[in-house]
Design a protein that fits this description.
Elements: E1 16-23, H1 26-33, H2 38-54, E2 58-63, E3 66-71, H3 74-90, E4 94-96, E5 102-104, E6 109-116, E7 119-122, E8 128-131, H4 133-143, E9 150-152, H5 154-164, E10 169-178, E11 182-190, H6 222-233, E12 239-243, H7 250-260, E13 269-273, H8 280-290, H9 301-309, E14 314-319, H10 324-337, E15 341-346, E16 356-360, H11 375-378, H12 382-394, H13 405-414, H14 419-428, H15 434-439, H16 444-447, H17 462-470, H18 475-484, H19 493-499, H20 505-514, E17 519-521, E18 528-530, H21 533-544, H22 547-569, H23 577-586, H24 588-601, H25 604-620, H26 624-637, H27 646-662, H28 666-683, H29 686-702, H30 706-722, H31 726-742, H32 746-763, H33 766-782, H34 786-803, H35 806-823, H36 826-843, H37 848-856, H38 862-872, H39 877-887
Parallel strand pairs: 6-9, 12-15, 12-16, 13-14, 14-15
Antiparallel strand pairs: 1-3, 1-6, 2-3, 4-5, 7-8, 9-11, 10-11, 17-18
Helix pairs in contact: 2-3, 6-7, 8-9, 8-10, 9-10, 12-14, 18-21, 22-23, 22-24, 22-25, 24-25, 25-26, 25-27, 26-27, 27-28, 27-29, 28-29, 29-30, 29-31, 30-31, 31-32, 31-33, 32-33, 33-34, 33-35, 34-35, 35-36, 36-37, 36-38, 36-39
């Protein structure tokens, strides 16, 4: 942007003349002549600035070849424009070409003028800017002009005519559609010594469409508009159908695509609402009413429509479909009998015609749970943009701030990026804070509605939009849809077959998907489906109206996910653990729902089981705080368990001891694991005894009771050998190595670790391999072999990333940080330690204190320390790993540490 030229004392205020100018074919000329064109541009700018000053104009901004100027009256603006065109025409625009020859360029400018009362904004540097719809209209008037031409809006022409009278000439060019601002009658102004003959304006004729100006901007759909525009214009592409769930914004998107295509159809673009029509004749009659044709009562409407469309190039946008068979007849007649017509259909369901190309409209992008809550970063997501834009229509001062950003992000997630839900929510932000709305989302079908008369009845409430789709289903599909409401998040066909009653579940899923009531979720492990959250809550509310069916489905759902949790845990320390942990993380909400159901039913045995499984899964995912919470649920349930469930009691005690160990509560951990061991002994459970002895050995090791620890490890080893549990044999070998390490016998420790690593690689035990590689790294570090230590730490971290163990990742980062510190890589060490500290704190590990102590030992000045702490703050896991990675330029090359 250029520095402004000489300015009047004060920028004009109130009703002003808004003028835009630019050079025709500027991009092509500047690209062709490059540096040689710069003197001509400077000459052009000086000329316009001088004339602007002569007529008391204010230069708002200049960008490249384009000027935005404001004048106090239409007369001054028009005189400036006429003199500017005259000066440009009478100036010799000579340029020296690369070969040394001098060429004359036909430089011409476009000028557009509009009268309006824009909002004036004062900047801190004293400059002002003008914003608002009138500014946009003036810019579009200029865009419609040709080089050498001056175009005026109707408002500008009326005032200029009153003041300039017979000294100028005006030509009424007719009504045109200006993108984003709607209809405008354009006028050309000229004088006898200026050119007066030009091609038609660069805009579609308003008479060749019936589009209305959109009342709200289209947010977050730039990619979809571009893709659909290209699809409709593709050769032999006659029919495009937009499908998607109710409230996803199909109609608004179709309107935007229609506007983008105005210049591509010589015979017009026509938007035809078909709400309430159920016969082909009625639909054809409605289309005829919207087109510039003269209907006849004695000829069938569909025949008239086909006859009119012959030889014409036009786009018909058909919306509000309530009868698919009737529409199919109309569409088939048009695509079979007419060559130049393209159809864009908005529907919940495909038409199933061979010429049809489906385009699925998906909800707007939402921040993932791991997203940074920085307001600027959140505004990149389409759902957040739409929510904010809607909120500001009702409360102009509404802003996203660090305080309300988490609630706004969660609102967008809860509403699944569904535009209708977001717009209805935005209206409530004038009265309620985002956090208050979030608390009331259980009442979302009451809170998310409006009385606005300009919205179709089925879109005035979220429930009405979903119910309209629901009522189109046959009764068996309705019942199936209701059952799907018990699932949280995504689910598979196997999940559906286990939980829902249906004669053909796959067919039912596909039908709901075709009706856009169910979304398919891309996943590396195969097909997964999900209901949008508002859709899911509606389905669940309908299922609750049938209490017996509701209870049966919830029971099947809870028992299925109890079995799934158990199956995931069975894969720990096997080659399938990575997939099992990712599945458990994916289905965590369903497992929580199962726990809630068992609690409601007073089924304390299954409640205790589910709570134990959740604690164990969270423990293995490194979610220490969550693991502790679920363990407390299991401990509470033990009050209701009898002696028959003794092994379950022992498992709960052992898990309790494991979490106490993780929290470094050694004495409590020792007492608890000894209680668990006695319980296993009373039951004669050999494998349970071996697991308890292994944990007891670790507790004794941490309290430096080395010989008792060795005894427990040896007995655990025998138990695992007898039970044929090779992964656990390797685990105990690792722990025996730890015993040697703690006593300073590093070579003996490496011998045990090496044996364990060999077994773990063979078995595909990623978790065990990570633990042992980490210990090998620590041993090499103690021996001063820092390069080797860093290699072991790096591979260990890769393993933890694979299985998604957050605390394991934190420990890996911490160990790398310590190794880098010893190597003198201060900044890289700081980044790894800060990342580790963030994860330790987030997931509740006492190892935070150790990482903090290491960080304070680094030789960093206060400014550098503060900068790194600020950079690290609130990063999501993947971003945190990337940040630490890039700080260490000489790290070993690996695949997974990314």
């Amino acid at each position: 942007m250029s520095v402004r030229g000489i300015q009047p004392v004060e920028a004009p205020r109130g009703v002003v003349a808004l003028v835009f100018t630019d050079i025709q074919s500027y991009s092509e000329m500047s690209e062709r002549y490059r540096g040689a064109f710069r003197p001509l541009l400077q000459q052009h700018n000086q000329l316009l600035r001088a004339l602007c000053h002569q007529y008391n104009g204010y230069e708002v901004k200049a960008l490249g070849d384009a000027f935005f100027l404001v004048f106090g009256s239409a007369e001054e603006a028009a005189r400036f424009a006429l003199d500017a065109q005259r000066a440009i025409l009478n100036t010799s625009w000579q340029i020296t070409q690369p070969n040394g020859t001098v060429a004359e360029l036909p430089l011409r400018i476009r000028i557009g003028i509009h009268i309006g009362e824009p909002e004036l904004i004062q900047h801190p540097d004293g400059s002002v800017d003008y914003v608002g719809p009138d500014v946009n209209r003036a810019s579009r008037v200029c865009s419609a002009a040709h080089g050498g031409q001056i175009l005026l809006s109707s408002a500008a022409q009326a005032l200029a005519l009153n003041t300039l009278g017979d000294t100028v000439q005006f030509r009424n060019l007719g009504q045109y559609w200006l993108k984003g601002v709607g209809r405008e009658r354009l006028w050309q102004i000229w004088q006898s010594d200026l050119p007066d003959t030009f091609p038609p304006p660069n805009a579609p004729r308003a008479e060749l469409h019936n589009l209305a100006v959109a009342e709200t901007p289209l947010i977050g759909r730039e990619r979809e508009v571009a893709e659909l525009t290209a699809l409709v214009l593709r050769p032999n592409h006659l029919l495009t159908t937009l499908v998607g769930p109710s409230g996803v914004g199909k109609t608004r998107l179709a309107q935007a695509v229609a506007e983008a295509l105005l210049e591509h159809f010589a015979d017009g673009v026509w938007f035809i609402p078909l709400d309430g029509l159920t016969t082909p004749e009625a639909m054809a009659q409605r289309i005829i009413q919207e087109l510039p044709m003269h209907p006849r009562a004695d000829i069938d409407p569909l025949q008239q429509l086909v006859a009119y469309a012959q030889g014409r190039a036009m786009l018909l946008v058909l919306d509000g479909i309530e009868s698919l068979p009737a529409l199919t007849l109309v569409v088939r007649a048009l695509i079979q009998g007419v060559a130049g017509v393209r159809l864009l259909v908005v529907s919940l369901n495909p038409l199933h015609l061979r010429a049809e190309h489906l385009y699925e409209v998906r909800p707007l992008s939402v921040p993932p749970p791991s997203a940074d809550h920085d307001p600027l970063l959140l505004e990149r997501y389409g759902a957040v943009q739409l929510l904010l834009e809607g909120a500001r229509r009702h409360a102009p001062d509404f802003q996203i701030t660090p305080a309300n950003a988490p609630a706004i992000a969660e609102l967008c997630r809860q509403l699944d990026g569904l535009p209708l839900a977001l717009e209805l929510t935005a209206a409530r932000l004038a009265l309620l804070s985002p956090a208050e709305i979030l608390k009331r989302l259980d009442e979302r079908f009451q809170i998310l509605q409006t009385r606005s008369p300009d919205m179709p009845p089925r879109q005035r409430a979220l429930q009405s939009a979903i119910e309209w789709s629901y009522c189109q289903l046959e009764p068996p599909i309705r019942a199936f849809f209701e059952q799907l409401g018990v699932f949280h998040g995504s689910f598979t066909l196997d999940d559906v077959e286990a939980v829902c009653e249906s004669a053909a579940p796959l067919d039912d899923l596909l039908e709901l998907h075709q009706r856009a009531m169910l979304m398919e979720v891309p996943h590396k492990d195969g097909r997964r489906f999900r209901l949008l959250n508002p859709m899911r809550l509606f389905a669940l509310s309908m299922l609750r109206e049938r209490p017996e069916a509701y209870a049966a489905v919830r029971q099947r759902h809870a028992e299925h996910f109890l079995r799934l949790a158990q199956a995931c845990l069975a894969q720990v320390r096997t080659p399938l653990e990575n997939e099992a942990m990712h599945l458990a993380e994916l289905q965590m909400d369903n497992m929580r729902a199962a726990l809630e159901w068992f609690t409601q039913q007073g089924d304390w045995g299954k409640h205790a089981q589910m709570a134990l499984y959740l604690s164990q899964l969270c423990d293995r995912l490194g979610w220490l705080l969550n693991a502790t919470t679920y363990l407390q649920h299991a401990l509470d349930a033990t009050l209701f368990l009898d002696a028959v469930q003794g092994e379950l009691l022992a498992e709960i005690m052992l898990q309790h001891a494991a979490l106490l160990y993780e929290r470094h509560e050694w004495e409590a951990a020792q007492r608890t694991v000894q209680d668990a061991l006695r319980q296993y002994e009373s039951l004669g459970a050999q494998l349970g005894q071996a697991r308890a002895r292994n944990l007891l050995g670790l507790v004794l090791l941490r309290t430096q009771q080395f010989e008792p620890a060795r005894e427990q490890f040896q007995r655990a080893l025998q138990g695992f050998l007898q039970a044929n549990m090779p992964a656990y044999v390797a685990l105990v070998l690792n722990n025996l190595g730890l015993l040697e390490y703690e006593q300073g016998r590093f070579e003996e420790a490496k011998r045990f670790f090496t044996q364990a690593v060999q077994r773990q690689r063979t078995l595909g035990d990623t978790r065990g391999l990570s633990e042992t590689l980490n210990n090998l790294g620590a041993t090499h570090q103690m021996q001063g072999e820092l390069e080797a230590a860093l290699c072991y730490y790096t591979e260990s971290l890769e393993c933890e990333i694979q299985i998604g163990n957050r605390l394991g990742i934190a420990r890996g980062l911490c160990n790398l940080g310590e190794g880098l510190m010893l190597l003198g890589e201060t900044v890289a060490a700081a980044c790894h330690l800060l990342a580790a500290m963030q994860l330790f704190q987030q997931y509740g590990s006492p190892d935070y204190d150790y990482a903090l102590a290491l960080f304070h030992r680094l030789p960093l000045d206060e400014e550098e320390r503060a900068r790194l702490e600020a950079e690290c703050q609130n990063r999501a896991l993947e971003d945190l790993l990337q940040w630490a990675r890039y700080a260490w330029q000489d790290r070993p090359e690996t695949e997974s540490y990314r």
